[in-house]
Write a structure and sequence with these properties.
Blueprint (H helix, E strand, L loop, with lengths): L1 E2 L5 E5 L4 E3 L6 E9 L4 E4 L4 E4 L5 E4 L2 E5 L6 E4 L11 E13 L1 E3 L9 E11 L11 E3 L3
Parallel strand pairs: 1-3, 2-4, 3-5, 4-6, 4-7, 5-8, 6-9, 7-10, 8-10, 9-11, 10-12, 12-13
């Protein structure tokens, strides 16, 4: 996998496997990101990802792996001083192994929930307690 281009900015539909690396952190999600079938979005340990107003990450048949560590968690939030919420994560129609490990989410509930899972697989491992202004996840797998 190669690092995303754009000096720490990402947006739109990904067309190749993409890594948000620590060297370009913090990353800005400037517009909604879609991860389609056959594409993987990787987020390295210790990365901070800051979302623009209304931005989200939609994993639509693709795959997202964000493996933080206890010493270097991944933080999903907004830039310092911002007052908006962002629209969280949507995992939809994907049977890929999606994983969020050692992470926190700040102000990621623009639609009333931070993580939505619909006909998808997602492992949440060791989210950091005290996530700011989040209402949890919504699982519609039935």
């Amino acid at each position: 996998m190669t690092p995303a281009t754009g000096q720490g900015t990402i947006g739109g539909t990904l067309t190749a496997d993409t890594t948000l690396g620590i060297a370009d952190s913090p990353w800005t999600v400037a517009s909604p990101v879609t991860v389609p079938l056959g594409i993987t979005l990787m987020v390295e340990a210790g990365v901070r990802v800051e979302f623009a107003n209304g931005a989200q990450i939609l994993i639509e048949e693709g795959r997202m792996v964000a493996d933080g560590t206890e010493a270097a968690p991944i933080v999903f939030g907004r830039s310092e001083g911002a007052t908006h919420t962002w629209d969280g994560f949507v995992f939809e129609d994907t049977l890929e192994e999606n994983r969020l490990t050692h992470f926190s989410m700040e102000f990621g509930d623009g639609v009333g929930r931070s993580i939505e899972v619909t006909r998808a697989r997602l492992t949440l491992d060791d989210p950091i307690r005290g996530m700011a202004n989040n209402r949890g996840h919504h699982d519609r797998n039935g």
